[in-house]
Amino acid sequence: MKAHAAQHSIQLVVSQLVVSEAFYAGILGLPLQRSFTAPGAPEHMVLDVGGVAIVFVEEDDVIRTHPVLEHRLGMFPRGIGVTLHFEVTDIEGIYDAIMEEEMEILYPLEVKPYGVKEMWCFDPDGYLVVLDESLAGAQG
Fold first, then answer.
1. How far apart are CA 66 and CA 2, in angstroms?
2. What is the pLDDT of residues 52-76, one digit of tens each?
3. Is the domain of 36 the same as that of 51?
4. pTM, 2 dp
5. CATH code of the domain containing 102
6. Domain span at 106
7. Shared-domain flag, residues 70 and 4
8. 10 Å Cβ neighbour count for 134?
9. Span between the terminal Cα atoms of the chain, in Å
10. What does the alpha-carbon distance between residue 39 and residue 87 come to, in Å, rounded to a whole number?
11. Are 47 and 30 in contact, with CB atoms under 8 Å apart?
12. How far apart are CA 6 and CA 75, in angstroms?
């Protein structure tokens, strides 16, 4: 049995899985799952988005497994040049939660002429996250 249905994956290094879990699952309400790992293998979380798995791993585990990456991981802030785009429900509630947590917002929640409510924010590790909710879905 496969761990998840995704055929392709993107791995993101994060500072702490528990913090990423609180943001992606707790605030955004996305179906993030902790994966069962073999004893001694690094813990990780998986978000399956239409056949592509976004895999979250802690930086310390990556460095322990691949020490050659330590220098490169320290060269730039995390998240530079990466944008994650998600369709969500209850974007107004998400916006309120992000404001309450005093997280960084790039573009505040607004209605766009192409029929969505949209906001841009940064996750706890500096990855740019674009959220939108269809106006049709919000009204129906």
1. 25
2. 999 999 999 999 988 999 998 888 8
3. yes
4. 0.85
5. 3.30.720.110
6. 78-140
7. yes
8. 16
9. 37
10. 35
11. yes
12. 30
Return the structure tokens found at 103.
Answer: 């997280």
The count of domains in the chain is 2
**In terms of domains, do 71 and 119 share one?**
no
The band of 127, judged by pLDDT with boundaries at 50, 70 and 90, is very high
Q: Are both 99 and 112 inside the same structural domain?
A: yes
Residues 38 and 89 in one domain: no
Question: Burial of 20 by CB count in 10 Å (0-12 exposed, 13-18 middle, 19+ buried)?
Answer: buried
Examine the domain organization and report whether 69 and 82 are in the same domain: no
Tell me the mean pLDDT in the region 88-116.
Answer: 95
Q: Do residues 82 and 70 both lie within one domain?
A: no
Nearest CA-CA partner of 33 in 19, 47, 22, 23: 47
Residue type, 34: R
Q: Indicate the pLDDT class of residue 38, thresholds 50, 70 and 90.
A: confident
Report yes or no: 17 and 124 within 8 Å, Cβ to Cβ.
no
